[in-house]
Amino acid sequence: MIQLIFNIGISSVFFILIASVVFIHYYPNKFFNLFQSAIITFAAYLAYLFSIKLTIPLTRAIPLAILCSVAIGVSTELGIFRIMRHSQNDPGQNSPSFKMLIASIGLYTILQNLISLFFGDDTKSIRTGEVKVGHEILGAYITDIQIITIAVSSVLFIAVLLLLHKTSLGKQIRAVSNNPELCNIYGINSDQVILYATALSAALAAIAGILIALDVDMTPTFGFNYFLYGVVAMIIGGVGSYRGLVFGSLLLATAQHLAAYYIDTKWMDAVAYIILILFLIWKPLGFSGQRLKKVDV
After folding, report:
1. How many whole angstroms separate alpha carbon 99 and alpha carbon 80?
2. How far apart are the first and last CA of the chain?
């Protein structure tokens, strides 16, 4: 039982980090960018390429992988999503967010297939040392990478909260989320703010992908499941609610691990989507119970 509690806590921290990735991008953009799931995977495979194939020290390979992941995230924003976002001003162009969602699915498919083509579909690992038994605490075991993940994820989540509430960029992101047209009128460049948010979310996605790969290895599709967990955690926690990310992640992790313990591990994904469906039917606003405000010009 103690091990089960530890596992729930570790998974919750993973989900909080992924939910932060989803949140930072969704907040000003108002669509779920599924291409971020490919960035999660892409960063891990870049770290594998740099550290294992090119024998670059891991301490240098990881920052390099993060920078490359940010670059591809920013490139898709500049070359695709910004153009699609501005097309909403053209006659006959409706639902730009839906179009960008579809485009993100296409981009995810392309990058995922490229990863499979160049690296194969088998499981890869960026761990080079021998596998060690974790540290025993109260009869449960926790590994070094899990401890690092808890620390890094907690620090990053707090940093995101501080950025949104204590910095000029954070206030601009919140303003653009509320009304980008009004922001442009008052001199805030919504395109630039969205670009910064995209770069930040890509960096967080890359860090998350590398941490996950260090813990459980990687396949070309592993990022997609974790990204969807982040989406589920954000929705059941309440879109726009920071505390909701924590509660949503904790509920999701608890339900998944209890299902794995009492039924079977194959039910972990199913339980996540059952919870999502139940919340969408009976509590669509999530834990927060508050609608996002929007002021029309």
Report:
1. 11
2. 55
135: which strand partners?
Answer: 142
Q: What residues contact residue 121 under an 8 Å CB cut-off, 6+ apart?
A: 219, 220
| CA dist., res. 94 & res. 11, Å (int) | 39
Domain spans, the chain: 26-224
79-118 pLDDT, tens digit each: 999 888 887 655 444 557 788 889 999 999 999 999 999 9
| Signed CA dihedral, 237, 242, 247, 250: sign only | positive
Compute how many other C-beta atoms are within 10 angstroms of the C-beta atom of residue 231: 22
13 contact partners, CB below 8 Å, separation of at least 6:
149, 150, 153, 154, 249
Measured distance CA(42)–CA(57) in Å, rounded: 18
Q: What is the pLDDT of residue 133?
A: 65
Residue 103 dihedral angles phi and psi, to the nearest 5°: -65, -40
Q: Would you give the distance in Å from CA 26 to the centre of its chain?
A: 10
- Ranking 33-42, 65-74, 122-131, 190-199 by mean pLDDT, the lowest is 122-131
Query: How many other C-beta atoms are found inside a 10 Å radius of the C-beta of residue 35?
Result: 30
The closest of 18, 212, 12 to 4, measured between CA atoms, is: 12
Q: Output the CA torsion 51→57→62→65 (10° steps).
A: -50
127 burial type by CB count under 10 A (0-12 exposed, 13-18 middle, 19+ buried) = middle
Report the residue count for the chain: 297
What are the residue ranges of helices labelled H in the chain? 2-29, 35-48, 58-76, 82-86, 96-119, 144-166, 168-178, 180-185, 190-216, 222-237, 242-262, 267-282
